[in-house]
Amino acid sequence: MTSSVAEHAANSADVLKERLRAQRDLLNELHSTRLHRALSWLQAAQAQQDDDDLRFISGWIAFSACCSVDAGGQPLEDQQAVQRFVQQLVNFDQHKKIYHCLWHQYSGPVKALLKNPYVFAPFWVSQRAGHDDWRKAFDESSVAALNCLSRKKVPELLTLVLDRLFVLHNQVVRGGATYKSRVNREQVRDGADLLLTLVPVFIDIMLDAQDQDWGELAYPVVG
């Protein structure tokens, strides 16, 4: 992780933790617990400065803590939940922090991730099926993503970025990649850096929008 990203993540986590403490009396218990869990995993991620795999895994858990909700007794972290979360974030992002993050601060890694076929789900579907019909969809998705980036279509762009990160999550967390493998270093490093840059922005927005309904916790504190 570059020193600037590490410093940004560390400062963000420290500042956000102090904000959470200061605002705790104003937050309902569910929202306070959600953000406390997310910050704990964000801090775990930034502590792994020399291990991109563990940074990515901890960063993903921090993201999941922000958006995972209860759905009839079962944890929900599917496309519908993520889209709802993304739309809420953008609606309450009054200062366009997400767009600034994706375009100004991190456009290079965002573009690299979007142009990487190994984090594009249809690529792997084609590999398993033994055919090569993923390229058209990949090209269309890449063009659509770059159009979203240039035209400031933040919900669509953020959803595409998270889709790519979800494929990477499946590779790393579900045993589809070797620990510290040289094969996937670039996407794991960029994915970890992106998460450690985006998650503090998400938490910041959620602290500002403390009165909004961010969903029930799948695993609330008991007792």
E-strand count = 2
Helix content: 55-70%
Q: Indicate the mean pLDDT.
A: 87
Strand residue content? under 5%
Shape: globular
Total domain modules = 1
Going across the major beta sheet, what is the strand order? 1-2
Q: Report on the biggest sheet.
A: 2 strands, antiparallel
Annotation field: number of helices: 10
Please tell me how large the radius of gyration is: 17 Å
Content-based structural category: mainly alpha
Uncertain regions spanning at least 5 consecutive residues: none
How would you spell out the order of helices and strands? HHHEEHHHHHHH
- End-to-end C-alpha gap: 39 Å
Protein name: Apea-like HEPN domain-containing protein
Organism: Thalassolituus pacificus
